[in-house]
Amino acid sequence: MSVLSEFKAFAVKGNVVDMAVGIIIGAAFGKIVSSFVGDVIMPPIGLLIGGVDFSDLAVTLKAAEGDVPAVVLAYGKFIQTCLDFIIVAFAIFLGVKAINKLKREEAAEPTLPPTPTPEETLLTEIRDLLKNQQQNRLP
Hints:
Distance between the termini: 74 Å
Number of strands: 2
Number of helices: 4
Order of helices and strands: HHEEHH
Shape: elongated
Structural class: mainly alpha
Strand content: 5-15%
Radius of gyration: 33 Å
Helix content: over 70%
Largest sheet: 2 strands, antiparallel
């Protein structure tokens, strides 16, 4: 088997295609979540904590000299990224929790047993009649 045919067999396997679709949808979902966090969640939080934008917090380790840029320890961006992660993780947790609740409610609904078809009912009656006839013949 040539390398090209092996690669073709690998690339068209269902799980590889599913994974690729998941990655593409995940990237698109990442943009939605980033917008949700940055545009919807963070403004009220910033208002609650006095308008502090963590991403601007930094310590200059070495000032700029001529064409050489300053060396800056941007710890605020790290704090902001951690806060974004916590918010995203919590939002995903709430979403998964809601989905699991819906699944539990769906599973809790009692399902009625299927009613037998007319043919099945007729066959059951015939079976019962034959059983009764055999029992009546026994001494």
